[in-house]
Amino acid sequence: MTRRIRLIADDYGLAPGVSAGILDLLDHRRLTGTSCMTGFPEWPDAAARIKPLCGRAAVGLHLTLTDQPAVTGQSSLAPEGRLPPLRSLALPVLRGNIDERDVHAELDAQYSRFVEALGRQPDFIDGHQHVHFLPVVRKWLRAHFSEEGGRPALRGAPALGHAAVAPKVAAIAAVAAGFNRSMARAGFTLFAPLAGIYDWRQPERFAPVLQAAVETLPEQGLFMCHPGYVDETLRARDPMQGVREVEYAVLASDDFGASLAHAGVEIMDGKG
Q: Across the strands, what pairs with 5?
């Protein structure tokens, strides 16, 4: 029996080169879908290019609360109009130094830009640097999607036990503690376990991590990846650069296609 795996590219909309690489892989059916960053000036154009794929590909929202311009401008979340580094987000929210209403307003704005450009709600929601696991975002998700049948799926937590990246997995799992259980109780579908975690400063580790997913990822799980082409916009916005072209090359390769065939595995489409 054929097993299917769910491959989701993060960061569509981050830069034109990233969006172009993801679109190429979607066209060649090497991805299930992608999650979109809606806060950049290029978003309307990027949305127009991916809109024809909605339905065949899963198109989600990549909630962004760190390191990029805030859609809502200056607030307690972004005093100078720029979202804080991750290390400066979680604890200040818990201590009340960042007003959760400002966080929710930013999430509302990013969601609205998605719906306005694509004419539909996202198929699923995840978070840049896993911010969707934070309690303040969990609260927004439960409040925003309270109607039965109107909830997008959510990216769930990773499973522990991957020795090569155990500290990184453990750190993410700690932030995500209780997420799967509480959001399932609230009526959301969870894609879990999360796979695809590795040290992206060592690009050679991507292919083995992907192969492990081909061999073992269950159908309800999700493999995240970050393919794309490097351009000047990306260089100005994000430190994750050359490794994106490595991921793109692996996903587009004949070797990856052969590994899928050998394992009797298919890439799930957006209806899966």
A: 267
User: Tell me: the pLDDT tens digits for 15-30?
Assistant: 999 999 999 999 999 9
pLDDT score of 168:
82
Q: What is the mean pLDDT of the chain?
A: 94
Q: Could you identify the residue written with the tokens 């916005």?
A: 237
Distances, alpha carbon 169 to alpha carbons 172, 192, 241, in Å: 5, 14, 22
Record: fold of 3-267: TIM Barrel (3.20.20)
- Are 1 and 17 in contact by the 8 Å Cβ rule? The answer is no
